[in-house]
Amino acid sequence: MSAAALRVAFAGTPEFAAVALRALLAAGFDVPLVLTQPDRPSGRGMKLTPSPVKRVAADAGIAVDQPEKLRTPEQRAALAACAPDVLVVAAYGILLPPEALAIPRLGCVNIHASLLPRWRGAAPIHRAIEAGDAETGITIMQMDEGLDTGPMLLARSLDIAPDDTTVSLHDRLAALGGELIVEALPRLAAGQLDAVAQPVDGVSYAAKIARAESAVDWTQPADVIARRVRAFDPFPGMVSRLRDTPVKFWRARVAAEAGAPGEVIAAGPEGVVVGCGAGALCVTELQRPGSRRMHVEEFLRGFPIARGERFVHADA
User: Fold this and answer.
1) In a 3-state reduction of DSSP, which class is residue 67?
2) Which residues form the Formyl transferase N-terminal domain (predicted)?
């Protein structure tokens, strides 16, 4: 079956999903319906803002439905009326009950940003970086009622670079997800993809990122903190307190120096070096409340830091 002959409904919300939707449209797939979460308040004025997926759909002239849930026949009415061959799901953020999963002729397939069964759940990109994984990838999965537990249809790996943040890794995974779903759908329709059950061993869960996790625990080893700085960029960042001022850390690396946890060992244009439970952290990009992210040299001109001062736990 050609791309144009395959009727594809799409469900997704953030930019990760928008990349996949753009890829499907560019490849010529017939996308008659997009499901996305309701518009949410955003920005200083808390104005209702459409999701990235809704904006792509609007630009393409695709019908959009935004139910809060898919539990009732009324909430599933648009999807049922669409009668899709397949529903592609990417970071939708709304649970699909069995009644919704049963609507498409070929079922529902999910674009998941990990190599399943590692990092099932809400934050696979963040958790892979935080854990120090050497690689991650995209899994195209046939959805069932569980949390990312369905059989795998197609997967491709991607190396995690030593300086990857969630931002940079997200962008590469989103592009890979778009490529893989474009490849997978015609093969699925032609019966050329075997659904393979996920291994029982190696299951891990990527819990949603909580703001409370952003507080730096200086008793941890420097390499652990450095990974968390990268994993929590752009949200929620890592924060510590100095002289009653919360300071966010956006770029950091492990340093050779050693000192007491939280103690400033050195502060200069090359970085602010802070002692950890093991080793030290050299921070090179920082931010104060009400200001933007700055390179350490610029930051120190407006907020000098002296050797011997101590960063302490900040309420996240």
Assistant:
1) coil
2) 7-185
Written as one letter, the residue type at 297 is E
Tell how strand 8-12 and strand 86-90 pair up: parallel
The reply, when asked if residue 51 is annotated as ligand binding, is no
Contacts of 33 (CB under 8 A, 6+ apart): 9, 10, 62, 63, 64, 65, 78, 79, 82, 84
Residue 117, marked binder: yes
pLDDT in tens, 148-186: 999 999 999 999 999 999 999 999 999 999 999 999 999
Element (H, E) at 35: strand 33-35
| This prediction's pTM | 0.94
Please tell me whether 246 is known to bind a ligand: no
Q: Residue for token digits 């040299």?
A: 297
pLDDT, one tens digit per residue, over 176-187 is: 999 999 999 999
Q: Name the residue with tokens 């799901």.
A: 89
Domain span holding position 289 = 212-302
Residue 43 confidence (pLDDT): 75
Q: Give the residue ranges of DSSP H helices in the chain.
A: 15-26, 52-60, 77-82, 98-101, 124-131, 166-189, 222-231, 296-302
Instruction: Give how many domains the chain has, as a whole number.
Output: 2
Residues 36 and 9 sit within 8 Å (Cβ to Cβ): no
From 205, 220, 248, the end of a domain falls on 205
Q: Binding site annotation covers 97?
A: no
pLDDT in tens, 262-281: 999 999 999 999 999 999 99
Q: What is the mean pLDDT of residues 76-90?
A: 98
- 92 inside domain: yes
